[in-house]
Write a structure and sequence with these properties.
With about 300 residues, the protein is of the alpha/beta class. The protein contains ten helices and nine strands. The strands form two sheets. It has a six-stranded mixed sheet with strand order 1-2-3-4-6-9, with helices on both faces. α3 runs antiparallel to α10.
Length: about 300
Amino acid sequence: MNVSPQVPQVPQVPQYPPYAAQPSYLPNPYQNPYPEPVVSPAPEPVPAPVVARTVRTERQGPVLHIELDSPATGNAVTSAMLDELLAVLAVPDPAVRVIVLSGAGRDFCLGGDRDELFAGLDQDPTGGGIRSYGEKARRVCDALTNSSAVTVARVQGRATGAGFALALACDLRVGADNAVFRLPELALGLPVAWGGLLPRLLHEVGAARVREIILTSRPVGAVEARELAILQRVVPEQDLDGAVAEWVRPVTRRPEAALRVTKTLLASHAAATRLADASVLDSELMASVLAAAHYTRGLAAEPPAH
């Protein structure tokens, strides 16, 4: 009797149509085994903060025009403005023969930004921010005075405090007939200690007249400013650019080496008359006086102890 061999029974895997749900433990025969990688969208670039520029520059051949460009504040000198000026002046271009410094709007410059100074005292009552600001101011004025280029101040309207110092740091100064110079520091409870102004003013004008201008804080008009050598020339405001051009033209024709050496000689002889240049202490003096005043105001504002 022949017995047929037993054939093992293989369990049948049920087939599922594409529309039927399949158990999760079975592979999906309709799924792409090599799916496209998921690419995350690139993040939106974060725009850089917009920094308001307060100094505008324009190069015209061998002449560099630098304009204080914050007319809404009367071109008040902030720490940011000093940084911008230093960026231009601290690395001089040897091809520049003349630098013209001017101010946008009605006034050349109404001085330092006192709101910024007092805000800095709130952050650092010891006056560290004011010392930094004062050191920048001194470097800017020294860069104007010691530049190998001839520096020209073009002044209209008011030149107060720091504005007075910036103009006086220049070699040549022409003013409109409406120009007014003033040092109100003492009336504001501040020392005359900005950018090395005092030794320059004493050298250019003389001790007796400077003493009177500082102690009274009175304004000095254009005509008197010319008599005191604060200005070398006064013209109607509409003629300012023409007066600057009359100085610029001959200077740009001078031999470069002779011009550079002459500027160095003039600066050296001016410095020799100062005996000791105490302007290095300007930032310390300003910081100490303002910090003391800030401390006193703070005490006055405190309620009395019980």
